[in-house]
Amino acid sequence: MWSGSSEPHLDQPHIERFGAISIGRYGGNIRAGADKNEDGLLVLNSPEGSWEFAMVVDAHTSSESAEQVLRAIADIRHEIEAVLRGGIADTFTGLEAKVDAMFRSQSFLERSQSIRGECSCLIVCRKGRYVWWYSVGDCMLFVLHPDFTAFGQTMLNQRHFYEWIGRENTFNDAVPCYSKGTTRLRPGNNVILMATDGFVEPGIAYIDAIKEWTRIGTPQALEQRMDDFLRHLHEVGTKDSTTLLAWSVTDA
Fold first, then answer.
1. Is the pLDDT of residue 95 over 60?
2. Per DSSP, which regions of 2-117 are E strands?
């Protein structure tokens, strides 16, 4: 688990790997006006490589909402892992039930009223040949494979603006608004990519990056492309923070 409030990575693109997942973090260019990083992430991996569970959050006003969501998911980590150890047919409905119950709980909603600001939140799980997502706000999920990109399919979720978790909270509404879904990976190498909104800053050639990453087959090559991209953000003077989670999954 990481919060940009403790390690902002201002002027310093940073790449590391946790299990199967490569993590890229960049807090923005100080000369362009960057002075804080309100992103965050949480990553869980199965020891045998049968699943990954990951989350990115992107806050505004302060990092308090992002940190609250990260702590809340970390608090139910063992329940999530128990669901992931079960049969594939029940995995994603079980995950949705756990996440939903946490976000709708009275204790979570009450804590949300005492913090400053709101955040977008994207939760993704890969188990076997399937990918599931749960999205509030405007963080992005891509699954990259030549069969998909040939039809222009790269981003799985729709970005939804003015959806938040925090002091202003969609789960306080009579009908909470968020999106969810599942997809099946294609035979061969698939790249799963999660990103906060700095990835699509105006003037950044993220579409070219997506085309390149579709053809990547090794974790080392993926990390190099991520590093190149974050360094490009710094060179062009990007103010916004960018957090990337990416990993390759080969389906027979």
1. yes
2. 2-3, 14-18, 21-26, 39-45, 51-60
